[in-house]
Amino acid sequence: MEIEIATIGGYEEVGRQMTAVRAGDDVVVFDMGLNLSKVLIHDNVETERMHSLDLIDMGAIPDDRVMSDLEGDVKAIVPTHGHLDHIGAISKLAHRYDAPIVASPFTIELVKQQIKGEEKFGVENDLQKMSAGETMQIGERNELEFVNVTHSIIDAINPVLHTPEGSIVYGLDKRMDHTPVIGDPIDMKRFREIAREDNGVLCYIEDCTNAGRKGRTPSESVARRHLKDVMYSIEDYDGGIVATTFSSHIARVSSLVEFADDIGRQPVLLGRSMEKYSGTAERLDFVDFPDDLGMYGHRKSVDRTFKRIMNEGKENFLPIVTGHQGEPRAMLTRMGRGETPYELEDGDKVLFSARVIPEPTNEGQRYQSEKLLGMQGARIYDDIHVSGHLREEGHYEMIDTLQPQHIIPAHQDMKGFAPYVDLAENMGYNLGRDLHVTRNGNLITLVEE
Ligand SMILES: [Zn+2]
Fold first, then answer.
1. Which residue range is the domain that position 31 belongs to?
2. H/E stretch holding 12
3. Which tens digits make up the pLDDT trace of 394-414?
4. Distance (Å) from CA 174 to ligand 1 centroid
């Protein structure tokens, strides 16, 4: 059976991930993501109303025109998890393919919400839920399986396409977490089994983020302990404490909520995306928040809540807000600019349970946000966080476990691929032979007929 890989997006950048695998006559698409920084750099861009081709020209969504060179039918569109760089282009591209969108329950729910917000295209693809451990027949001879992995968002999976020539493991994005705060540990046992099956692993496509960092990425339970230490240490502070994190990071949000309670403060989630992700996770029973946890997204209800906090005393509350990267319109940045009814005073604490995404725009915005908060007297607790991506030893362990015939590094630019290529070459792979560094819009033939 002929096997081809189309590397469509995310091979020159972090963002707008999209890869297609053709096995015989069947094609499976993995991820359809957005490159948010290409959108945010323009002021007032409303992607909801934009056409796909304009977004492709901006570099915001994958240029899927290479798909017409693949001689097969798309049988499934498979986003691996709910981050925007993996699902954000579905509402712009999926309608071009007569195929269902197949994803884990939390991811499907986020895809559904995204499609609902789309104003330009009618996206009518079937939405099919499939959980980790389950499989789905693809055409007559291929099978799709979801393997449970751990990442900075719940319900993440790595899809595996089993073909008569061996398995294709699509490895974006994960960290090797054996003690996650929500959900099951990464299913290394299943990866070991897949490696031992007939024909083994034909190809491993992997996210190279953090490949240049030594050692292993700590578990989410380490970030949780770090957070607990910080929050318990300020238990006696009788002024304002404000926290921010990735709103899609449900495990972290739930730790914040729990420790707020522990130190005698009522947690409140503020900001549109805080309400969106946490509300969805609670509706789907991934998390059990206290009954009195307030979640407010709309500007008016947020401001009303801030007024209530000021009236009843800042020392009784812990607002958990958006703005961990210093995004200009996010809640924490507005608080720093003094645009909300919440007044920061000398000695008030601001907890960043996030790392600055190392990119000039984020670094600049975050710097500005911290300065503004500091000018009002806030004390900053930075980097209470662990990454959602594998470091060098995690990458080593995955390659060692899967023993793939071919490796395709993804989810980075050329610079980001370099440390991963070094590692793979040290493990016996050869650039150009079985280790394929590529660009957006290429086709790689792994098995010829
Ligand atoms: Zn991700």
1. 3-216+388-447
2. none
3. 999 999 999 999 999 999 999
4. 7
